[in-house]
Amino acid sequence: MKWLCSISLFVALTLNSALADNTQLPSPDLPRDAYVNALLQKMTLSEKIGQLRLISVGPDNPKEAIREMIKKGQVGAIFNTVTRPDIRAMQDQVMQLSRLKIPLFFAYDIVHGQRTVFPISLGLAASWNLDAVATSARIAAFEGSEDGLNMTWAPMVDITRDPRWGRVSEGLGEDTFLASEMGRVMVSSFQGDNPAGRHSLMTSVKHFALYGAAEGGRDYNTVDMSPQRMFQDYLPPYKAALDAGSGGVMVALNSINGTPATANTWLLKDLLRKQWHFSGIAISDHGAVKELINHGVAGSPKEAVKIALDAGIDMSMGDIYFSRYLPEMIKSGEVSESELDDAVRHVLNVKYDMGLFRDPYSHLGPVGSDPKDTNAESRLHRAEAREVARQSLVLLKNRLQTLPLKKQGTIAVIGPLADSQRDIIGSWSAAGRIDQAVTLLAGIRNAVAGKATVVYARGSNITDHKDMVAFLNSYEVSVKQDPRTPQAMLDEAVKTAERADVIVAAVGESQGMAHEASSRSNITIPDGQRRLIDALKATGKPLVLVLMNGRPLALVHENQQADAILETWFSGTEGGNAIADVLFGDYNPSGKLPMSFPRSVGQIPIYYNHLPTGRPYNPQAPDKYTSHYFDEANGPLYPFGYGLSYTRFSVSDVKLSSPTMPRDGSINVSVTLTNTGDRDGDTVAQLYIHDVKASISRPVQMLRGFRQVFLKAGESKQVTFKLDAEALKFYNQQMQWVAEPGAFDVMVGLDSARVKTARFQLL
Ligand code: BGC
C-alpha cells in the first residue's frame, strides 16, 4: 500500500511539473496512460488532428510541404521513407521546428524482408517451419530498424481460398491454424521482447478483416460471410497476431456483410476493442476513408470522416479528409473532441510503446553512425535468406527420380523467369535491391561451376498479350519484352535444349501478376510459356519445371508434360542459390503446400477443410445426384499440405493414449515416422481432426497440429501431439464456443489427402 502511495505521489508530482510548461513533453518515466493524458492536455486541436495523419513523401506531399506540416504539428507518421538520413531529416524537423516535439513514427511494408528479401509470405508458409518464419521476421526487423523504421505493415494474415486473388501471395494460405501459428510467430519475431527494442519493429496486422474472401477473387470486392465461417475460419489469425501483442492493426478495404470495414463499428469497436481488448492503433488502408463515398455509405467527405472516426479508425493512411474536415467538424460539434482524443490517444500510445518519447532517434543513432552505403552487400543476410528459401520450396512431381540432377554434362536453363532478378524477389519486396538478387541461372551456374556446362535461352516472354503487358507496366516497367518474335525465341530455346542432357525451365508469373490489384480470371501459365513448354517437351529431353508464381496455378497440362516440377514461389534475394541447392540435391526438399492447387479455375473456391454435403460424391460408385462436377474431378491437383521429398517416408497407424478424452483433459496422439528411402531429409507430420457428428456440420478435416521432423535414411522417430478439448471447439448455432461430446476422428499424414485415422470419444 505504501509503495502504491509513493508511486501516485511521484506520478502526481511529475505530472504537475510537466503540465506547468505547455511546450514541454511529460517525463517519459510516467506510465503510459498518465503520460499520454498529460500530453493530450497540452495539445491544440490542430496538433491532435495532425497526429491522425499518415502520409508518404511523393508528388502529393513534396518534402517542403511536409516540412511545413511538421512545423505546425500536422503530421503523425510517415510511410515509404526508408533510409536513415531521410528519416532523420524529418525527425530533426520535428525536434527543431514543432512546438511540442511529438516524434513521428516511420512505417513501411516490410512483408518478407527489408533489404534481404526472403520468400513471399505464401512461400514462408510453405516451409511449415516456425523457426524459419521467425528468422525471416527477426532479420527483417533488424534491417528495418537499422534503416530507422519503427513499424511494419505486416503480417498479412488474411485467409485465402481463392487463387484468382493476386494477394494470396502476401498471405499465409488457406488454413486457419497454420496462418494463426505463423502470424503469431511473425508478430513476436518482428516486435521482439519489446517493440521499443533497438532492433524491433512494431507490427500492424492486416487487413482487418476478411480481405482474403473478396468475391470472385477480385481485389477490393465485397465480402459476405456467415458468422460461423467468420469466427471459425477467418478471424482467428488476426486474433492470434493481436494476442501476440501487435501494436497496430490495418483495416481492410472491403465491406463485410454490407458495411465497409472502415465504417464498421461492430468490427472495430465491439469486436476489436471491447471483446479482444486491443489498445493499439487502428489504421485505415490507403485512401479508405475517401472510398466510403464509393461504397455508398457516405454522401460527402465530411460524412466519410465522421463515419470512419465513429467506427474506430484512428489514423488515416494517404488521404486528406481527416485533416481537411476535422477542424470545422469539431468546432461545429459534428465530431466530439473526446472522440478525437480517443483516436489521438491510440496514436500516442503506440509512440510511447515504440519508445519514441524516451528517444525519438532510438532507431537512428547519431548522424555519424549512418551506413556509408545503404545498399552495401555487408548489410544483407544472405546465408539466412538461402536457408529459409530452401525450406519454402515444394517438390510437386518427380517422375523416375529425375531430380536431383547431377552436376555434370550440359544443362539447358530456359524460360522468361530463369534470369529475372526483378521477378525472383516478388512483389512488396520493400527496400530489396533487384541487382542483389540471385537468379535461377546464376544459382545453377554457381552450383555447377567447373563441373557441368550451362546453356541458356529465354524462350519466350512472360506473356505476349499486349493488354496484359500494358497492365503489368502501367506503374513501372516491370516486364521487359524481348523484341524478337515468339517463334525466333522458341527456335533458339529448342536448339539450346537439344544440346543439353536435361532442361530446367523457369516458368510461371511475373511478380506483378501476383500483387495487389492483380486478380486473374485464368490461373494457368500464360500461353506463350505453355507453347515453350510444349516445344521443350517435344525434344524428348528430361524436363524439369521450376515454377515461379505467387498463387496456386492450374497445372494439369504441365503436370502431364514435365518429369519434375518444383514450386519455388518468389524465393527472394538468395532464391537462385536456394533453388539450385534443391535441384542438385544439396538440400532435400521439405516444403508443403499452404493452399490447394486446383485443376481448373472452375473448381474455385477449393479448400481442404470444407464441410460435408448431404450428397457426397463417391468416385468408386458414382451417382448422378451427388455433389460433383460432371466435367472435372472434385479434388485438387495437389492437395493442401502436399510436397514430395527425395527420400520416402512412411507413417505408422495412429496410436491414442486413451480412446476417450475427458472434457477438461487431453489425449496424446502418436505416430512413428520412418525414412524408408536412402537420403536424409525433413518432412512435416500433420495432425487433422474431424468432428463426426455435431449440432452443426463440421469440416471433413481441420489442421490442429504440425511438426517438421528430420530423419536420417532408415531412421524412425515417434511424433506425439497433445490434443485437448479446446482444439475441438467450434461456434454452434447460438454462436457459443463449445466442444460437443461424441466421436472425433484424428488423422495424421504427410499431406491432407493421405492420412492414417483413429477415433476417440469426447466425454
Ligand atoms: C495496401 C496495404 C499496404 C498499403 C501501404 C495498400 O494499398 O492494401 O497492404 O500496406 O497500401 O503501402
Automatic annotation (TrEMBL):
This is Periplasmic beta-glucosidase. Its EC number is 3.2.1.21. GO terms for molecular function: beta-glucosidase activity. Belongs to the glycosyl hydrolase 3 family. Residues 1-20 form the signal peptide. The keyword Hydrolase applies. Residues 683-752 form the Fibronectin type III-like domain. Keywords: Glycosidase, Hydrolase, Periplasm, Signal. SMART domains: Fn3_like. It comes from the Bacteria. Gene3D superfamilies: Glycoside hydrolase family 3 C-terminal domain (3.40.50.1700), Glycoside hydrolase, family 3, N-terminal domain (3.20.20.300), Immunoglobulins (2.60.40.10). It catalyses: Hydrolysis of terminal, non-reducing beta-D-glucosyl residues with release of beta-D-glucose. It is found in: Periplasm. GO terms for biological process: glucan catabolic process. The keyword Amino-acid biosynthesis does not apply. Its main location: periplasm. One of its GO terms (cellular component) is periplasmic space.
